[in-house]
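A.,

Following up on our hallway conversation. Structure tokens first:
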């Protein structure tokens, strides 16, 4: 009995020591000691861990305790009563112990009252981290989505991807509206290139790997006219377009065709702005999908008379004309001014008027650069 007591004392002391230090040798020996504990001894070690403050070595010790069914990550998270501490611990797990993170996701996926609590913990943790990553795209050292995907079932992975997509697109939206977006797209593109090859970009690669899932979410937001972050929607589309399979080319083309059909059917300016934004992003990211922007514009707008009624043609030309004051990209305007648009009978004036206003907008944008200052 004395020997048993001494052994328990030793493992309690060792557990406390391992909690307080980041990396300790002889982990296999400690693991073997945990493996041979009886139920009562396991309870003692469990209580020791629960009573100790979270420290630099806690995540690793919890990983070992979970392996030996002494204490799981989800049980530990549910025992906490401080939101701040919960957040700090989740941040540690997102940086290092991906098996513990995967365990929490699995538990949160179940249907009971505790799962709901864990879902809230996960959601809040991801929300906080995404906000931090938007400020500093390398705020964490590793891409936890890439690391955790081998540990999760497809349905669990899809759930956390949906959560992340919503956080990037909907939570804390940048205050860009559609009116500004047409004029901001080029600047956003340059700004977001600074995120390339960062942890944030790595997460986005994982999120848009399933393009049907991402495009499906975009379609839902567009159909419901829900506000979302255009800056991140366009960047995620750009990242998604860098590696494209054949089936995904059709998916992206159909997405744009459907959006064009929505413009024609509804006559809504907002839908036209989205159509042009997404088409420009796809063409700029990877021209093999739909061709260059001028090729796409010729097929979609230049030849639209063959797929729309006369009144729909007129309405679409009126929308394009009304949008011109917001256009600031000379390259795009040059395309619009130069590509021929076939018009139905008695509709040529709409096209001529549009072209004339395109050229006027180009001249106006060039004017400040070409002003000659006369010296006295």
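Then the amino acids I'd put at each of the 376 positions:
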């Amino acid at each position: 009995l004395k020997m048993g007591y001494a052994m328990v004392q030793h493992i309690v002391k060792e557990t406390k020591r391992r909690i307080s230090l980041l990396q300790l040798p002889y982990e296999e020996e400690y693991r073997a000691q945990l493996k041979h504990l009886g139920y009562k001894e396991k309870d003692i070690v469990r209580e020791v861990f629960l009573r100790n403050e979270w420290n630099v070595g806690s995540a690793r010790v919890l990983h070992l305790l979970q392996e030996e069914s002494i204490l799981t990550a989800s049980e530990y998270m549910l025992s906490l009563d401080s939101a701040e501490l919960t957040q700090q611990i989740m941040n540690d797990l997102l940086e290092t112990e991906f098996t513990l993170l995967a365990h929490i996701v699995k538990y949160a996926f179940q249907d009971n009252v505790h799962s709901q609590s864990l879902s809230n913990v996960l959601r809040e943790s991801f929300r906080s981290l995404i906000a931090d990553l938007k400020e500093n795209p390398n705020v964490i050292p590793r891409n936890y989505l890439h690391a955790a995907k081998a540990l999760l079932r497809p349905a669990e992975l899809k759930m956390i991807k949906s959560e992340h997509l919503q956080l990037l697109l909907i939570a804390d939206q940048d205050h860009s509206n559609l009116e500004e977006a047409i004029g901001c797209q080029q600047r956003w593109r340059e700004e977001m290139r600074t995120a390339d090859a960062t942890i944030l970009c790595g997460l986005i690669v994982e999120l848009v790997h399933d393009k049907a899932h991402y495009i499906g979410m975009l379609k839902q937001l567009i159909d419901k006219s829900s506000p979302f972050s255009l800056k991140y929607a366009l960047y995620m589309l750009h990242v998604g377009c860098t590696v494209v399979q054949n089936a995904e080319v059709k998916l992206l083309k159909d997405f744009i065709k459907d959006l064009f059909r929505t413009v024609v059917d509804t006559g809504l300016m907002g839908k036209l702005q989205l159509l042009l934004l997404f088409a420009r992003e796809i063409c700029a990211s990877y021209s093999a999908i739909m061709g260059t922007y001028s090729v796409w514009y010729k097929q979609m707008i230049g030849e639209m008379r063959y797929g729309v009624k006369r009144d729909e043609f007129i309405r679409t030309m009126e929308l394009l004309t009304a949008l011109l004051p917001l256009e600031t990209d000379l390259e795009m305007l040059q395309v619009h001014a130069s590509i021929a648009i076939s018009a139905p009978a008695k509709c040529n004036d709409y096209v001529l008027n549009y072209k004339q206003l395109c050229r006027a907008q180009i001249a106006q944008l060039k004017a400040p650069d070409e002003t000659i200052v006369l010296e006295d």
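The mean pLDDT is 92. Curious whether your intuition agrees with the design.

B.
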